[in-house]
Amino acid sequence: MASMGTLTLIRHGQASFGAADYDQLSEIGQEQSRRLGAYLGHKNVHADVVYRGSLKRHAQTWMGMQEGLALTLGASYQAAVATVNPALDEYDGEALINAVKTDALEHSKGAEAYKQHFRLLRDALGLWMHGQISPEGMPTYALFKSQLLDVMQHICDTHQGQNVWVVSSGGPISTVVGHVLRAPPESSIELNYQINNTALTRFKITSKGLRLAGFNSLPHLDNADDGRLLTFA
User: Fold this and answer.
1) Which of 55, 88, 119, 173 lies 20 to 30 A from 148 at CA?
2) pLDDT at 144 over 70
3) 24: part of which helix (H) or strand (E)?
């Protein structure tokens, strides 16, 4: 009987919320990524295969992880090439919000604007999941989910007995968790809002599919002085 493999879904480091280009890691995001790589290297946890989404924050997170791995492992570290798959990309939050946007968001400032942004995003996600809005340039939720689950099925079919790392975003990660738990679509919204930047969500790869083994773990930030590194956006 083939041994079980593991799939670890890794959320990207903190991006640049409020900047002209959100799809860039902040300085904190870069540090989170390096710390994650260093932790994995210290624990001698390795990946046989790496996948990532096509967004810049995915590429930069993987780059930071590799810097941390190389720093910890030194000459013994061999850089891995990640397979890029756009099905692992986040949904377009700006398009979702624009589909339900109100004047209140445009007039809000600072912390209130931040709260209003995520309230509108929550509402828009629910409407999108039920086919009640069609945000510009976005697939239906059914297509978004099916393409993502196709990648997960490919991993199950191809990587039995291997350790697989996937660098992605909160939306895809929460969608996979919700699917494995057979939860209603709305549950993935709640799961998504809990996932920290660079958090690890682990599954066992079995002959019958994925089994959830751990959710939203942050062992690399498990120190009293790391409060500033606990971020969600």
Assistant:
1) 119
2) yes
3) none
